[in-house]
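Why should sequence recovery work at all? Because a backbone constrains its sequence more than one might expect. Tight turns favour small or flexible residues, buried strands favour hydrophobic ones, and helices have their own preferences. The token representation captures these environments compactly. In the example below, the structure is given first.
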């Protein structure tokens, strides 16, 4: 005998048009569900603290001061996170963006970071908070001999970290340079001198990421760190070149052959000598023209950047 089941109640006939005239009043707003601030019983998985939770890569224009005077506005990618205690379900992510927008129109880079960080901790009732701003910073660079000039762009990030009430200010700068292999240079000269054979040493585009804690009362500018990099490894890649510049660059590389081990130590020497620099990390990648793999090195000073384990993308993220 066929079982006769009751008909399923009809789905409510809900309006399918957007109500542009509707306005939210305080009572309606208070009635809206807020799962992120719900009870601990809603927590999924282990009831444990989370060190970082927030948003990444929201973009907006930020004003930056230039060392020689004036300012520049650059599109900036922001990552903002806070800590989350074990008994809390989540955070309201939009508050992070609102905090940032509240300061971006009337303050400069580091001031925006500091003020937004204070807001984060207050608005989200967090113990720890971190903000990072990433941008591409243009600097006018002269050619070596022809008198031309062009814009060199540096990938830079500013970071403010507040952990257990202690605040760190960190700068990251990517510096792209040419590295001529000292061994290849000597072997090429050996072929010329002993056998009369034309030979050329191999060189490659290389990149170092300098990460440093901004220490002391005196400000260290983006331009200062770039100059520090050039002093350590002068074979920065060129923007505008004519034949005389290309020849000059070949001579500059021959005068400064460098292994990846030499590179990180050269950068470290400049960083150690600058009193505005606290702890630091140098990660370098020489993207070989001889091999199908890269030569890499990492050097740290101080506890801030010390690490036993490497992120799998530590070196892969360095692309010249």
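From this structural description, the recovered sequence reads:
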């Amino acid at each position: 005998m066929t079982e006769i089941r009751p008909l399923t109640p009809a789905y409510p006939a809900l309006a399918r048009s957007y109500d542009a005239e509707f306005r939210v009043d305080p009572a309606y707003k208070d009635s809206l569900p807020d799962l992120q601030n719900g009870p601990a019983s809603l927590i999924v998985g282990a009831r444990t603290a989370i060190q970082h939770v927030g948003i990444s890569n929201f973009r907006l224009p930020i004003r930056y001061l230039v060392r020689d005077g004036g300012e520049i506005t650059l599109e900036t990618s922001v990552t903002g996170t806070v800590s989350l205690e074990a008994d809390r379900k989540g955070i309201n992510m939009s508050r992070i963006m609102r905090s940032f927008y509240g300061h971006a129109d009337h303050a400069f880079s580091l001031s925006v970071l500091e003020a937004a960080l204070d807001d984060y901790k207050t608005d989200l009732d967090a113990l720890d908070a971190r903000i990072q701003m990433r941008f591409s910073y243009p600097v006018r660079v002269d050619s070596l001999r022809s008198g031309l000039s062009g814009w060199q762009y540096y990938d830079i990030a500013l970071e403010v970290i507040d952990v257990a009430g202690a605040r760190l200010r960190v700068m990251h700068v990517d510096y792209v340079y040419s590295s001529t292999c000292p061994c290849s240079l000597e072997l090429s000269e050996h072929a010329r001198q002993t056998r009369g054979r034309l030979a050329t040493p191999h060189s490659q585009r290389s990149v170092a990421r300098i990460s440093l804690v901004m220490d002391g009362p005196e400000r260290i500018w983006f331009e200062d760190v770039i100059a520090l990099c050039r002093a350590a490894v002068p074979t920065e890649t060129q923007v505008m070149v004519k034949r005389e510049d290309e020849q000059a660059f070949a001579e500059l590389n021959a005068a400064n052959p460098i292994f990846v081990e030499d590179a990180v130590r050269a950068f470290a020497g400049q960083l150690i000598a600058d009193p505005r620099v606290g702890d630091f990390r140098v990660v370098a990648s020489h993207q070989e023209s001889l091999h199908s793999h890269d030569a890499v090195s990492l050097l740290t000073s101080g506890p801030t950047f010390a690490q036993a384990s490497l992120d799998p993308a530590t070196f892969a993220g360095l692309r010249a």
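A few observations help interpret the result. The domain at 142-319 is CATH 3.10.270.10 (Urate Oxidase).
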